[in-house]
Records
---
Amino acid sequence: MTNKSRALVFPPAPPAHPLEQLRQFTSARIALHRTGDSLPTEELLDFGLAHAFARDAVHATFDTKAITQQLTAAGLTCITIESASPDRATYIRRPHLGRKLDEASRQRLTSLNLPTNPEVLFLIADGLSPIAPQRYAVGVIQATRHLLLDWDIGPVVVAEQARVALGDEVGEILKADMVVTLIGERPGLSSPDSLGIYLTYQPKVGRTDAERNCISNVRAEGTSIEQAAKTLHYLLLQSRQLKLSGVNLKDNSALPPPLPLADPSPSGNTAIQ
């Protein structure tokens, strides 16, 4: 009996997905092929890896020492505080504790003798992705500070185990006109390091999310540091002028400036220039 070599026969490649070209514009999971009733092995492994990155981001260590060193090198004074959440596990299970200060931090802020009430106060918080503020927060503050030449800016507060609303209590204690909280957003399966920026006018305990403005998705693959700083600068100027923030404060920074009003003509009528 003789063995005859047989050529391997592979199944034909699946046809191109009709949305395949859109994948070059987004990291979202679109145009996924199927293998029978399941995803292809490559797509399944990619999903598992992205899920692992998201989980790691939530539990990452927030290196407050490195951030304070960056702030000091940039010529900014800073103070570190902690929320009432004693550890990461409690922070995740009991979100309300991340929205208020622990007693030691409250006393530390109360004892500060600021020469004036700051017009704006920056707060860097770990949130649900400590790697996000670690990578982008100081850069956003530096870029924004260069646009706020005549503003009274308070010390940068670095908060651990913090939620967005912690900035309300901090801003109220330090009597700031506005507080800007830079915090790690909840990781997505394609964005584990997304930074969110929240602006609140006249912060005080009890402010709602409707009273804040948000700039989201600040990261290398999303909103750039420069664009975030420009948008934040616009919102700060408008907030100071209109004395509000939240749903009534719109980001119209991308709109063209209004046309100038026409000068009155000698006859008393106005003419369009």
Note: Strands lie at 78-82, 120-125, 156-160, 178-184, 195-201, 212-218.
---
Amino acid sequence: MAVCTSVLTATTVLRASADQMATTAKPEKTYTGTVTSVDTKEHVVSVEKWMLFNKKFNLGEECTYTFVDKGTGTMSDLRPGQRVRVGYQDAHGVRVADSVAQQPMRYTGMVKAIDPIQHTLLLHVHGMDKTFQIANDCEIVLHDNKTGVLGDVQTGNHVTVTYETPAETPTARQIAQTSATFSGSLTAIDLEAKTIKARELLDTKKFNVGDNCAIVVNGKPDGKLSDLKPNEKLVFSYDEINGINVVNRIAPADVSRQPVVATEPAGND
């Protein structure tokens, strides 16, 4: 009888625990939007979707945080303008977050203009322009994951911008310009085949010209292959694809590091 009583008591306790867990644990839900405010003292984050729906989430004690630029983080890494996916439970209308994962927002295009003083960047892609404010601590990533500075980003470069939208202003947090560069004198050009060759000392390279290649003439990235002159000293930005050099920017060597600053208000798409 004592054994039976013990078994019955243990079974009752297990059932009670299971019932309690079923009562407290809610089905996981998700919500994706842009962070509008963070209260680290009260452990509350507000997230807005489509400028229509704003939800507040209580950040649970064991809530996990992941970010695009650093992987695992903490609540203090949350800031307005980040796009996040919140995993949460809804207990009688009280939303408790179990996880917050930043979602990357990226835009790839050609640098049409850059203003290092105003910290603005104008990108052009598919006939449209998009303006970004450049954060003071914006990360510049170059070829082979080398760290660069804002001066390394030049007119005509093809870049990928990772950005956030604080106060609905697209703000660059990272600018990646990962093409390799080669400086040399133009030795041959085939306008029909869209290929060019350049030589520097004993090194000669052949390039296939991409359809969206920016040719910088007089500081503007709208030149043509026919504008290039034999023996002209040029800088080529290119990507090596399975042994083929595909050039996406050609600029005179003496002006290749002089950014063009927009003189007219740039439009947003």
Note: The helical segments are 2-24.
---
Amino acid sequence: MDHQAIKDLLPLAALERLEPDEARALEEHLRAGCDECEAELRELREVAAALALSLEPEGSEERIWERLDARLQADASEPSRPAARESGRARRPARGRVGAWRAATAVMAAAIIGIAIYAGRLSDQLRRANEEHRQEFAAMDSRLGTLRAELTRARGEVGALQRVLGARIRMEKVLSAPDLRLTRLKPLAPAPGAGAIVAVSATNKAAVFQAVGLPATPPGKTYELWWITKEHGPVAAGLFQAEDGHPVVAAVSLPPAGEHVLLSAVTLEPYGGVSKPTGAMYLKGAPGPA
């Protein structure tokens, strides 16, 4: 047991109410030289003894009986007082019972005091333990929340990497097609350092857009690619987001079948895209030869 646990046992030790293993632990602690516990135990024993003595009748039982016997012998020479002798004999067991009850009451009072002290210390221990556990649980809950957030972020990053990888695979497949057709998009005023390529393969039925240098997509906005055809003007080809310093690779729709594509362009539109361009144009270019 530690020092505090031993101190909690001292009130019961003063009343001789320890269990054998507790008594052994206390003896070993005192033999180790703990002056604090030894002094406190001595004080508690003195308190218990004082309580017991304060409730006892004056003098010991033996002295009381000696005085009564002397009184009875003196009364034996006085025949006129038989009633007093009978009264003395009648009272003797009553006095004995009173003394026993008072002694028992003293012991009980001391025990109550000791138990109250012990209960108070035990209550403090439980309160401290509950507070420590509450803090530990709060720390664990906070850590769990952090781990969940990190897991969600990691899943998002993995998903983004998977999408980029899939788009790159499609790009490689399109670039290796025999009917590859490329459209190079050049920067306009809103993005002077940007550039892009659109690769189309009718055989593979795939089109892939790759761009670099575009500004990060503002909140509530999206970039939109357009096929500008001779027959119907701008036709939406796909939506994508951009991050500073990261290239963009995205699968887009094939040009409308049977229509002549004059230009390809990228504009910044409201999130979710629009059916016709409304925002500023960032990139523009004409398709290369078939």
Note: Residues 71 and 85 are 9 Å apart (CA to CA).
---
Amino acid sequence: MTAAAQVADKPADQPAKRHFSLPSAYTILFVLIVLAAAATWVIPAGTYKLDENGQPIPGTYSQVEPNPQRIVVDSLMAPINGLYGITGEDGSVSIWNSGELFGAIDVALFILVIGGFLGVTMRTGAIQTGIARVVGRLKGRESWMIPILMAVFALGGTTYGMAEESLAFYTLIIAVMVAAGYDRLVGASILLLGCGVGTLASTINPFATGIASGFAGTSISDGIVGRVVLLVVGTTMAIVFVMRYARRVKADPSRSMVTTFVISG
């Protein structure tokens, strides 16, 4: 009887509350494709005259017969044509045409391969372990940590566009810098400026320089000397800037920009 009463008094399991979550990137892209297809029924169609380089000539716009797209069929075929669509003699793009490849399947496969490689590398923790080992080896010599870590992050930025991947290191680097007598801005600047300058130069970045070179019809090696110079000069300037600020803050913590902002706010 007692056990039965306890079971009876037990509240029924309440259904789990649903929380709003952002849709995936694929969903957002597909919605944009559908909206673009629907817009062809509303927005007037037009064209420009082109010069010898294929660029539109200003002031030559004229309206043409509308060509509204099938919202369901063409929206579903758009990703496929974007990968392997072929331009026909009449200018249409379809996988059933015969002619020049319009789609960018080579770029898509390239991104999949490189992205898979980086995903495996990040999942194994190789990069995180390497950065943590550098931090551990330089314990007590935090002033040397600034140029070394900034050079490492700049190398990551210039080789594979390291940017969002650095978010995992902010807690570690900022905690070490604060413990060494600096402020949080020093730790954040090591990552932000290091990765930023490296990505800005993008000497062999496959996502920025590699894909852009492919669309431009040039080699990724074209202009690499200038990008290397930009990488070296930019990284050096960023290191000098952060180290000067770090020495100033360590000598007089009241000169910290973070502290000043908190006081004034």
Note: Residues 261-265 have pLDDT under 50 and may be disordered.
